[in-house]
Specification:
CATH architecture: 3-Layer(aba) Sandwich
Shape: globular
Order of helices and strands: HEHHHEEHHHEH
Number of domains: 1
Radius of gyration: 20 Å
Structural class: alpha/beta
Helix content: 25-40%
CATH superfamily: Alkaline Phosphatase, subunit A
Oligomer: single chain
Amino acid sequence: MSLYRSLRMEKEINMNIIHIISDTFRRDNLAIYGGKGYTPSLNAFADKCVVFDKAYVCSYPTVPIRGDLVTGQVGICRRGWEPLKRDVPVIATDLTKAGVVSMMIADTPHHINNGFFYNRGFTGWKWIRGQEGDCLETHPYDYESQDALRYREYTRTHPNKLPLGLGNHIRNTDFRQTEADTFVAQTVQTACDWLERNYQHENFYLMVDTFDPHEPWDAPEWYLKRFDASDYDGPEPIYPPYGP
């Protein structure tokens, strides 16, 4: 939030900012905070950075926290899971006034679709479609396929039904051939491509927003095998219940 306030105060911006959102890491599982998670790239990045050890988000759920990030205002007490109101100032508009090119590249659907409009004010934006029940594809799918059976057996609802949106998820992902086809890989590659084409801008702000590693958990098989405990023979969780 202090960054947002400083941007509003400065008449000229002389920096490039890449803002990466990943929904969501568990602090207690990250090696940089003493956890046992295998994150070599994140560790290497942290070695070159300032790491905050007492930072807390203001508005926890998916949409409210993104409202905080695009407005610079703590909104959980006044703004819920809802569209962004047109009269609320956003950081992208102030950046434009300061001569900064702003770009949002996101696969998280919730704050963009259904008129939520959290991409308001950006010079450009690109939505990588298909994440978590996004209404993208319409073709029939095999209800008895291996993926569908896994979703039906190990999800929040009754085993004979699919949770709302998971039918869409199966349709949206049945084209995958390699890891490059996953949503997070598409999003990151799109951001890299954007940087190659736009690095000559004097000042830019790039927001890269990916919904992974959020449910549904559909990591490539080789990831599952790499981290599967040798003494575990239970189901592979995909969209488990949050509680009893």
